[in-house]
Amino acid sequence: MKARSKSRLWAGSVVLLLVLAVIVFLHFHDAKKPVAPPPATPVTAVAAKLANVPVYIDALGTVTPTRTITVVTQVNGILNTVNFKEGQRIKAGQVIATIDSRALEAQLLQAQGTLAHDQAALANARVDLARFEQLIKVGSITQQTLDTQVATVQEDEGTVKSDAGNVKNLQVQVSYCTITSPVDGVVGLRLVDPGNYVTTAATTGVAVITQLQPATVVYAVPEDYLGQIHQAMARGAVPVSAFDRDKKNLLATGTLLALDNQVDTATGTVKVKATFPSGADTLFPNQFVNARMQADTLNQVPVVPTAAIQHGSNGDFVFVVGANNKVTLRNVKSGPSYQDDTTILDNGVKAGEQVVTDGADKLDTGSLVKVVAH
Question: Which of 30, 84, 233, 262 is deepest in the core (most CB within 10 A)?
Answer without folding.
Answer: 84
